[in-house]
Please model this.
Amino acid sequence: MAGMTGTVLGFVGAGLMVTSYLMKSMLPLRYVALAANVFLVAYAIAGNSWPTMVLYLAMIPINLKKVAEIRKLVRAIETARADTPIADWLLPHMSRRQARAGDTLWSKGDVATEMVYVHTGQLRLVEHDRLLGAGELVGEIGLFAPDNRRTGTVTCATDCTLYALSAEGVAKLYFQNPKLGFHVVRLVVARLLNDAERARGAAAAQA
Model:
């Protein structure tokens, strides 16, 4: 009977583990993986398989830590209002770097690999001759463009402290909470509307 119980525990644990690999939503995935770890630890104990027990026992705190991190991010995004500074919830997931005046972050037509938040300094949108200062985000349009290409050239007008989030990081945050998509879409639409308004203003000035 003990052997049968152990087998059942093993099959349940294996089934849950496979299910976790098929899931796209990160928080439920971690909960299922955590449940799989518990069943597989019980299976290992029932079968006196101590290396297997140690392996899945070690996975439990790892999955608990990931669950805590994801829940924290979810709460931050859910409580973020439209006027909440993006730095309050996005910067902890971005990497910081320095850039010098005159540096080119990317050129028009380059493959988009990241979006950038300006912490200090100013960036220049070359084609629009527009400056972006502290608190602004740039590069998000290229990440979501059909061809994944940059729509303009961005250079450093001054020395800058920047925070970058890779395309992979954006996808990861999106899967952790799809609400991130609405925030990014709002940023993209605002940028496009702003560019369209500037273009109309420039055309009116030349008329």
Remarks:
- The chain has two domains: 2-79, 86-206.
